[in-house]
Amino acid sequence: KKKKKKKKKKKKTNEKEKEKEKEKEKEKEKEKEKQVATDAPSLFIKNLNFDTTEESLKKLFSSIGEVASVAIAKKKNMKQDEDKAWLSMGYGFIQYKKEDHLQKALKNLQGAMLDGHQLQLKISDRGSTRAAAAAVDAPAKSEAGTKLLIRNVPFQTAAKELQSLFSSYGQIKNVRLPKKFDGTP
Question: What is the reported pTM?
Answer without folding.
Answer: 0.49
